[in-house]
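Batch manifest, entry 17 of 40.
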Amino acid sequence: MKRAFLLGMLFSSACLSPYIFSATENASMRVSVNVLAACSIVANEMQFGNYNPAEADAIRNTTTINATCTSGTSAIIKMDDGSTEGEGSSLSAPIRRMIGSEGEYLEYAIYSDNGYSAVWGGTAETGVAMTGTGSVINLTAYGNVPALQSVSAGSYSDSIQIEINF
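Output type: C-alpha cells
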C-alpha cells in the first residue's frame, strides 16, 4: 500500500509539474545614467637648465600638459601671465618673467606651437582648444628664454596658473 501510494504521488508529480508553472509574466527594467561633461588637467614642470647671459642664443625647452575630458567635450586650456608678469602684460599678450633671489627678472615666453610664434595666453583666442576623447591628451608647451639678458647669477622661477574651461 505504501508502495502504491508513493508510486501514485510520483506519477501525479510527474504529470502535473509542467502545469504548476505554466504561466509567465514579463516586465522590463529601465537602466539609465547621465554622463557629465568633465575635464581634468595636470601640468608638468618646465625646467630650462642653465642660462648663460653672455651667450647669443636663446635657450628652449618643452613640457607636457596632460588633459582628460569626457568624450566629445570641447575645452580650451589657458595660461595666465605668471606671478611676476612684466609691465603691460595681459592675458592675451602675457609678458612672463622669472624672479631671482636678488629681485631681478629674467624674461621668458611659452608658446603653443613648435615654431615659437603663437604665445600661449589666457584668453579663448590665445589658449589651446581641444576635444575630449575620454583618454589623456598630451599637449606640448614650448618655452623660450631670450638671449643676452643682463641678470645676476642665481636661481630664477615663476609660477603659472593653468586652467581648462569646458
